[in-house]
């Protein structure tokens, strides 16, 4: 059995970091989307998703992440991911997420590059 996804938000002066813990499936993806859309509606234009404690993302979770990326691009913002497992990193490459969102090895590198 997979654990329910938990999302924590850390607001920064120039954006926000979302920390995920658990399985990103349809339910988990929707939880991330809800948080991301709330932040976008509050004029946050830089989002970093730290997936350090996420080991699995299914196809529905990927499609929801793509929707979040598209909405952020439409708003003129930036979205990035960090701390991916090798399997998730490869999946993001194959599914094309890496073409529209930056991927960083560490949160520190991402925050420095994104100005968070």
Describe the protein in words.
- By secondary structure, the protein is an alpha/beta fold.
- It has helices at 26-41, 59-74, 86-95, 107-114; strands at 6-12, 15-21, 46-53, 78-82, 102-104.
- The protein has a five-stranded mixed β-sheet with strand order 1-2-3-4-5, with helices on both faces.
- The radius of gyration is 13 Å and the shape is globular.
- It starts with 5 loop residues before the first strand and ends with a helix.
SSE blueprint:
Elements lengths: L5 E7 L2 E7 L4 H16 L4 E8 L5 H16 L3 E5 L3 H10 L6 E3 L2 H8 L2
Parallel strand pairs: 2-3, 3-4, 4-5
Antiparallel strand pairs: 1-2
Helix pairs in contact: 1-2
Strand content: 25-35%
| Spatial arrangement of strands, main beta sheet | 1-2-3-4-5
Category from helices, strands and their pairing: alpha/beta
CATH fold title? Transcription Regulator spoIIAA
Number of helices: 4
Helix and strand succession? EEHEHEHEH
Tell me, rounded to a whole number, the average pLDDT.
Answer: 95
Measured as a percent range, the helix fraction is 40-55%
